[in-house]
Amino acid sequence: KAGVTQTPRYLIKTRGQQVTLSCSPISGHRSVSWYQQTPGQGLQFLFEYFSETQRNKGNFPGRFSGRQFSNSRSEMNVSTLELGDSALYLCASSSGGPETQYFGPGTRLLVL
Amino acid sequence: SQQGEEDPQALSIQEGENATMNCSYKTSINNLQWYRQNSGRGLVHLILIRSNEREKHSGRLRVTLDTSKKSSSLLITASRAADTASYFCATALNSGGYQKVTFGIGTKLQVIP
């Protein structure tokens, strides 16, 4: 099976812009989770989608949003970018139960 | 807030030595997982241990879990330069019919050839 893919891999934006990141899970996986990773904070959970519904959400401002499509692909959107949003954004998929999460390579976002 | 806290935050050893990393957590869990991350890349799952298990092995990896102390350890035996990476523990708790996973801040391991 193909692994989790994320696009784009690298992105440079300026403050105030918005960005959309994409994640394609492993075929058959219905759960997609998003994480923000920064050197100081480690991996911070953003949200999880399962069968097109958000079923878990971390403590991030409303500028961070996401959605999941019927084919389980997920997108994450960040509006009004701030310098502090510079990070590696990781998505992970699982079949939905208490099993292993499979991570994509991440999208590295730099906000100038 | 982070559920798991790894200790030490950084570890440097010689190739061939054993590396031990610890993870402490605060609440009850259903399972605990260890992941490896090579610099700037995605995480790779290493091993999962359930709350009713005490020890698990996978190749050169040995994981222990002490639910009374709310702690886990990851032992890598006969380390290799390729083991250089960051290692994260992740605790999972079933909540409302789904699994809530929380990661620690990681231990950065350097294996010197």
What are the secondary-structure elements of chain B, in order, as H or E? EEEEEEEEEEE
Most strands sheet of chain A: 7 strands, mixed
SSE pattern of chain A: EEEEEEEEEEE
Largest beta-sheet details of chain B: 6 strands, mixed
Portion in helices of chain B: under 10%
* DSSP summary, beta strand count of chain B: 11
Low-confidence regions of chain A: none
End-to-end distance of chain B, in Å?
A: 36 Å
* Shape assignment of chain A: globular
The class by helix and strand makeup of chain A works out as mainly beta
Quaternary organization: heterodimer
Over all CA atoms, what is the radius of gyration of chain A?
13 Å
What is the tally of helical segments of chain B?
0
Which chains make the largest contact? Answer: A-B, 27 and 26 residues
Strand residue content of chain B: over 45%
- What percent of residues of chain A adopt helix (DSSP H or I)? under 10%
Mean pLDDT of chain B: 91
Radius of gyration of chain B: 14 Å
